[in-house]
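Recap from last week: sequence in, structure out.
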Amino acid sequence: VDMIHELLESLNIKKPNLIGHSFGGKLSLIYGIKYNPKRLVLLASPYKVKIKELTKKQKIRRVAESAVMLALATVLSEFAVFKLPYGGSVTLVSSLPFILVSFRHGTKWGLFTGFVNSLLQMLTGFYMPPAGTLIAVIGMVLLDYILAFMALGLAYSFSRPFKNRTLGVAIGTSAAFFLRLVCSVASGALLWGSYQSYYAWA
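Predicted structure tokens:
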């Protein structure tokens, strides 16, 4: 099944239509559970499963994997290379789990997982910015948390134009990290920079 998936990936076929005959039906079912094809047809195959059951297994798998990635990212975020005085830190690989979710389950699920993580980050370590207006506070929350983490979920979308899988993963990952960096720089330049007088270290 993994060999079939690798072959399809090398041909840049993301959502195949699978037709399984006899024992091939079993392979198609296993492929469907692991990789979520566009359509799945079984011909003269003794291996049967209800479509609802297959879809349910796929959803459970996505939820379970995403929950593990969220937990892993939360743990990794505690190992900071550098911490800022008023919130924020620099970590090595705490964002990588969301890149994996994006490539594994697609852009929509990657965006959703990034959004959930932004809420978790605010719950576990939110610093109230010294913003003078509600709009500025909302802008900081969006750029520092919500949009910053959701940007990581776009990795798969950035990789799709490239037929070479390795190149696509590299470009998609780099583009997602760069977009997150843009959010942080924009927040610092447009919002946090306006309140330097509040910082003892500025």
